[in-house]
Amino acid sequence: MKIYVTEDYQAMSRKAANILSAQVILKPTSVLGLATGSTPVGMYKQLITWYEKGDLDFSQVKTVNLDEYVGLEPTHEQSYRRFMQVNFFDHININPANTNVPDGLAADPAGECAWYNEVIRKMGGVDLQVLGMGRNGHIGFNEPGNAFELETHVVDLTESTIEANARFFSSRDEVPRQAMTMGIKSIMMARKILLMVSGEDKADAVKAAFTGPVTPQVPASILQLHPYVTLVADKAAMSKMEA
Ligand code: F6R
Hints:
Layout lengths: L1 E5 L2 H18 L4 E4 L6 H12 L9 E4 L1 E3 L10 H8 L11 E2 L8 H14 L5 E4 L21 E4 L2 H7 L12 E4 L2 H6 L2 E6 L5 H9 L17 E6 L9
Parallel strand pairs: 1-10, 2-3, 2-6, 3-5, 6-9, 9-10
Antiparallel strand pairs: 4-8, 7-8
This protein binds fructose -6-phosphate.
C-alpha cells in the first residue's frame, strides 16, 4: 500500500486529484469508481479546475458510483446522483450516458443491484475506485458486520450512519433507512483503489483499518488484502497511526 500524508484537507484533495488525473491521462477510456460524501468534494473541485484549464479530457471516461439511497429520486437534493451532477459531472465533458449511479427509485432494488453488477462487468471492471471511509470504518454503505463476499446489494443503514448523514437532511426522520451499495467484493475487484481520509474524527477508523485485523467489523480493513491501494490522508486522520 502506498501512503501519502498531507498537511490538510486541501492538500489531500490535490494529491487525490493528481492520482485520478494520471489515471485518465494514461488511459483516456478509464472506468472510474466514484464516491460521494464530504471527503471527495475538494478533489472534484480540483479536477474541474484542471479540466477548465484544458489539462483533462473526460470524453471517453466511464464512471460507476458506489451507492445511492433507496427511495430518493435522481433529482432529490440529497440523492447521490444529484451530488455527482452538481459536484462533478455538470462541469466536465463527460458523456452523461457513461455515468452510472444506481436508481434510487427502482421498483425492485435487488434487481437494480443485479443489473448494476452487469453494467460494471460489461464495462470491463473498474480501473480506479475512489473511496471515502466512515467513522465506523464503512466503505460505500458496507457497514460493520456486513458480509465481505457481496457485490452490489441493498443494505439497511446503521443508526450511526443515519446519525452522521442527518446533517444533510432537514430532519433525522428524512434520512432514508436503506441504500444500494457496491459490496466489498465489487470494491475489491477494482484494479486500483484510492482511499481518501480527512480529519481527526476518522483517526480511530484509519488505525483500526490498517493496523488491526482484517474483519467485517471494520469493513475498510479488507483493503489490507488488495494489491494496489493508495491511501491519501491528512495529518489529522493519521494522528493515531504509530510513526
Ligand atoms: C459515499 C460513501 C461513503 C462515504 C463515507 C464517508 O459514496 O460511499 O462510504 O465515503 O460515509 O463520508 P464523508 O466523506 O462524508 O465523511
